[in-house]
Design a protein that fits this description.
With about 290 residues, the chain is of the alpha/beta class. A five-stranded mixed β-sheet has the order 11-10-12-9-13, with helices on one face. A four-stranded antiparallel β-sheet has the order 2-3-5-4. Strands 6-1-7 form a three-stranded parallel β-sheet. It is built from nine helices and 14 strands. The protein is globular and about 65 Å long. The termini are far apart.
Length: about 290
Amino acid sequence: MTRRMISLLLAALMIFSLAACGSSQTQATGTPAEEDAEAPAQESGDSGETLQFRVGMECAYAPSNWQEDTASDTNYPIENVPGAYAEGYDVQIAKHIAESLGRELVIVKLAWTGLIEALNQGQIDAIIAGMADTEDRRQSINFSDPYHVTVYGLMTLPDSPYAGGTTINDFSGASILGQKDTMLDTVIDQMEGVNHLPPVDSVPNMISRLDQGTCDAIVINLENSTSYLELNPDYNIIEFAEGDGFELGFNGSCVGLRKSDDQLLADVNAALATYTQEDFDELWNWAVENQPN
């Protein structure tokens, strides 16, 4: 073999060796990159993010729920109202349930009349808004066990000719006002001979109409009467003896859930069951004391 042939052979061997090294380096650096790319996909698939518990309420029904413009240790941001915070009894109940579920609480402010529709359309997961489990509503959604029991009465101005009524049948001729799409309106049909006025959209609006003298009495939740008297000590609260008042036909304030969410219903009831009546009463009294004037 000549020197020229040997030189050519050695050169070919060197080129082949370099090519092989280059291929080895490309593969070695490429594999970890692919593994790194796969790792986030696995994390995303494992869904490490905390599930949300989206709760709808009015944020305008103190002491059950109201709106504030300053953050505190107890209130909670309202998702669809920037810079606003939800507070009240319902908020504390929602926080407790969300903690028990291991979910992130999200508060959504909605008009009362849109709550059930928003729930069934999937915009929220639950209604926690002082909503009673009426027979009519049970046709559309499910309800949890009650987290607050209510009693209905009337409120009049102090000089009202109806201020001394002792049964719901002592108001013949009176103009009675309630809140739209609530039992505060529908129970008026149990009163004999009254003028059942077209309902308004909120309790504050009801109180305003009473102040203006456009109605003789409004239907109220008696447990809220303390706050109403703080606003105007001259209001006259009428509480009826058992058998003389309204027949409500429901358990009380309950969490509203979609018909299909059986497991969530069971989990919500389990969360509520961890509170004693004393716990509920303590939260309610706290909300009454801290509600806005």
